[in-house]
Amino acid sequence: MADDREAVAGSLLAHLAPADRAVLLSLGLRRSFPAGETLLRQGDPTDHVLLIVSGWVRVHASTPNGHEVLIALRGPGDVVGDQAALHGWVRTASVRTLETVTAMQLRSEQLAGCLRTRPSIAMGMLRQMSERLREAEAARMDFVALDVTKRVATYLVRLAAQHGIPDRAGVTLRMPLTQQDIANHLGASRRTVARALAVLRERQIVTTFRRRIVILQPDVLSLFARSE
């Protein structure tokens, strides 16, 4: 079960007191999914949400011209599919597991009833939505103002602040992350992202492994992202 240490920053569970977390986690059906499974599909009708207990998923959408956009990576404590479920919309994005994932599946009416009867959980949901709106606004500003290398650096700074685990080497990002994921999120080509990461590796600011990034010098990365 996700606790304070496991719930990612900005997630619903991170905003809730222990009693509220216990109530929310007692609802619905606990399910486990293997890596690579599509949990929610863009364009499908909706009647449920998923509260991630462990593991990571990628939230992505296809544009009319066939390009894939990585909207976000979500982990323990996050709710996915909530806006479509609460508003009765079709799914606006797909959700696929990056690794084995455990989640609580709640019917839309279960979540709505919980939000009505426990205002503190409703406030937590609003805070999660506010965090996501702020992420989206920051991404739009970065796209307009920065070149790709600075956008990559800024994105890594943001991920480190939200999902980084400090260790001897520096800060390790909690989620599995590929160059293609970064490219799909930033609206850049994989080759351009690879070049940007190469610049950061050459300066010994980051090191990369298969689906894992370690930020060796977080302060330097922040300065690099803000430099002219």
Task: Explain how this protein is built.
The chain contains 8 helices and 12 strands. The chain is α+β, with helices and mostly antiparallel strands and 228 residues long. The protein has 2 domains: 119 residues, Jelly Rolls (Sandwich), CATH 2.60.120; 81 residues, Orthogonal Bundle (Arc Repressor Mutant, subunit A), CATH 1.10.10.10. Strands 1-8-3-6 form a 4-stranded antiparallel beta sheet. It has a 4-stranded antiparallel beta sheet with strand order 2-7-4-5. A 4-stranded antiparallel beta sheet has the order 9-10-12-11. A hairpin with a 5-residue loop joins strand 4 and strand 5. Helix 6 packs across helix 7. The longest helix is centred in the middle third of the chain and has 27 residues. The model has no long low-confidence stretch (mean pLDDT 90).
Set down the secondary structure blueprint:
Elements: H1 18-26, E1 29-33, E2 38-40, E3 48-54, E4 57-62, E5 68-74, E6 79-80, H2 82-87, E7 94-97, E8 101-107, H3 108-117, H4 119-145, H5 148-163, E9 164-167, E10 170-173, H6 179-186, H7 190-202, E11 206-209, E12 212-215, H8 218-226
Antiparallel strand pairs: 1-8, 2-7, 3-6, 3-8, 4-5, 4-7, 9-10, 10-12, 11-12
Helix pairs in contact: 3-4, 5-7, 5-8, 6-7
